[in-house]
């Protein structure tokens, strides 16, 4: 009897030793793979993504599909399986685009004098202007909003028929009431404002604040440009902030005719039949039940395009794409060792209005019910600290990333409770939230270098490669552990409402 007991004890002890050894070996292998994620690797991806041959990665244009093919090629090389249409990596959908052939022309005129503006210093040409020109009187039209149900209309007391209007982004509402913000949300985007100006009779727009905006609509016979603050002040005779503050404080429109005439000329070619795509790959899980669940990480692959000069889009969003790629390469080393499936999505039309993420949510490979977590990466290449916003609402999920950051990365890691978006969503993660997905917003904190948003100066030299490396290392280690956590029951987890 003692011999049987001793033998059983020895077998159990040996099994425990073997299991501990296997676990130790797995942990050592994970650390080695994590350390293979380097700043140099991240910047190699970035340098390819910002190459001018991809023409700023504009959704709809053939050059975007070229960069999408490059990403798909990496996924295939790493053994990550396709999850797009018909056994491919591509989830395709139609999207129109405009080829901007040159910077065009913007000229101001007053009292017989002409002031020719220069791009990109004074203005950016409109991403979707028609081919041609307009010369007309310039009217200041505030926020370009007509919202009678809110008691506000920038066009109520001014004739803009056939003219050029100056309009600002945003809305005149400055409060924080959620319901009111949601009422104003549909009026805040440049797409609405351009369309409304056209419906009011205007045939051109000088859009206040100079930034690339590919999400504006193409309207035949309509021309526009985005102008620098100094140009705005020259036309108005005062800083735009004075006029906009007066509108916000009074809640009343203050539109008026300026003393200027302007000429806007565009050299463009409109393509209504463009095609774009989300790029989707995945590593299938191994557990009979848990493999039906997915951990998804995504980043928008598209950029601001080319407006007669190149927009590299390094921070926005080559940084996020590079981080997802590095994480995907590392996790692919452990194919067959993760119980849950892990999905990687590179969205094809974020900059034009969150179209790619919306299309995926409406046609998901894994439904919201079968997705444990979606993590969105947008502009994550400049800073010293890390953040997983909304992590505090999902402590069981957040814990894996927090622990691995503490043990292996060593950056500050901030988080927050989750909140549903208010007003107009501005990033893909908010779209996923609206469709009922648990969502982390992966970010970097404590900015180091200058931030150039929708600006041709958004170049790789302004990134911080080491923070990008550490984002990917944390995501790799945390996602591997989360994929194998059998104590988490998806259906029992909290969901932000």
What does this structure look like?
The chain is an alpha/beta fold and 497 residues long. The chain folds into 2 domains: 35-95 and 274-492, 3-Layer(aba) Sandwich (Aminopeptidase), CATH 3.40.630; 100-269, Glucose Oxidase, domain 1 (3-Layer(bba) Sandwich), CATH 3.50.30.30. It has helices at 2-35, 39-49, 62-77, 178-184, 190-199, 229-236, 240-250, 314-332, 355-362, 395-409, 428-434, 465-483, and strands at 81-82, 90-94, 97-100, 105-110, 113-116, 123-125, 132-140, 146-147, 152-153, 164-167, 204-208, 223-227, 256-266, 268-271, 275-283, 294-300, 341-347, 371-377, 385-389, 413-415, 439-445. Strand 4 and strand 5 form a beta hairpin. Helix 2 packs across helix 8, helix 2 packs across helix 12 and helix 8 crosses helix 12 (465-483). It is elongated, with a radius of gyration of 26 Å. It starts with a helix and ends in a 14-residue tail after the last helix.
The helix tally amounts to 12
Oligomer: single chain
CA-CA gap between termini: 61 Å
Low-confidence stretches: none
Q: Shape, please?
A: elongated
**CA-atom Rg in angstroms:** 26 Å
- Structurally, the number of domains stands at 2
Main sheet makeup: 9 strands, mixed
Number of strands: 21
> If classified by CATH, what would the architecture of the largest domain be?
3-Layer(aba) Sandwich
Query: And the CATH topology of the largest domain?
Result: Aminopeptidase
Quickly name the level 1 CATH class of the largest domain. Alpha Beta
Q: What share of the residues lie within helices?
A: 25-40%
| Beta-strand percentage range | 15-25%
Structural class: alpha/beta
Averaged pLDDT: 94
CATH superfamily of the largest domain: Zn peptidases
């Amino acid at each position: 009897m003692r011999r049987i007991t001793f033998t059983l004890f020895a077998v159990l002890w040996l099994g425990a030793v073997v299991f501990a050894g296997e676990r130790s070996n797995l942990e050592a292998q994970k650390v080695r793979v994590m350390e293979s994620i380097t700043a140099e690797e991240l910047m190699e991806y970035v340098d390819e993504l910002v190459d001018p041959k991809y023409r700023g990665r504009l959704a709809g244009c053939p050059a975007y599909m070229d960069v999408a093919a490059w990403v798909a090629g990496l996924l295939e090389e790493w053994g990550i399986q396709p999850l797009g249409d018909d056994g491919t990596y591509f989830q395709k959908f139609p999207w129109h685009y405009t080829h901007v052939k040159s910077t065009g022309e913007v000229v101001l005129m007053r009292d017989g004098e002409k002031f020719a503006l220069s791009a990109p210093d004074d203005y950016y040409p409109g991403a979707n202007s028609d081919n041609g020109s307009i010369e007309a009187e310039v009217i200041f039209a505030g926020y370009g909003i007509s919202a009678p149900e809110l008691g506000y209309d920038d066009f109520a007391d001014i004739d803009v028929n056939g003219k050029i209007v100056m309009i600002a982004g945003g809305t005149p509402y400055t409060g924080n009431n959620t319901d009111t913000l949601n009422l104003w949300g549909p009026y805040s985007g440049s797409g609405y404002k351009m369309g409304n100006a056209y419906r009011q009779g205007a045939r051109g727009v000088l859009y206040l604040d100079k930034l690339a905006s590919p999400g504006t609509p193409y309207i035949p016979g309509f021309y526009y440009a985005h102008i620098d603050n100094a140009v705005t002040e020259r036309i108005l005779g005062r800083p735009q902030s004075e006029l906009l503050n007066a509108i916000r404080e009074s809640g009343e429109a203050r539109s008026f005719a300026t003393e200027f005439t302007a000429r806007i000329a565009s050299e463009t070619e409109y393509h209504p039949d463009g095609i774009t795509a989300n790029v989707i790959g995945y590593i299938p899980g191994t557990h009979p039940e848990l493999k039906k669940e997915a951990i998804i990480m995504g980043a928008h692959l598209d950029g601001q395009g080319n407006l007669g000069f190149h927009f590299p889009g390094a921070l926005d969003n080559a940084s996020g794409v590079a981080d997802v790629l590095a994480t995907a390469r590392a996790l692919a080393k452990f194919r067959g060792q993760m119980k849950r499936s892990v999905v990687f999505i590179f969205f094809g039309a974020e900059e034009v209005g969150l179209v790619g993420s919306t299309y995926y949510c409406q046609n998901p490979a894994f439904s919201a019910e079968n997705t444990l977590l979606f993590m969105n990466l947008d502009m994550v290449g400049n800073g010293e600290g890390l953040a997983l916003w909304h992590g505090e609402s999902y402590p069981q999920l957040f814990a894996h990333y927090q622990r691995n950051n503490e043990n292996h990365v060593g950056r500050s890691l901030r988080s927050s409770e989750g909140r549903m978006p208010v007003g107009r969503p501005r990033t893909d993660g908010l779209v996923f939230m609206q469709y009922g997905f648990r969502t982390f917003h992966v970010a970097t904190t404590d900015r180091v270098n200058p931030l150039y948003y929708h600006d041709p100066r958004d170049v790789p030299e302004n990134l911080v490669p080491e923070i990008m490396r550490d984002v990917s290392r944390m995501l790799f280690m945390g996602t591997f552990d989360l994929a194998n956590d059998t104590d988490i029951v998806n259906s029992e987890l909290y969901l932000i409402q």
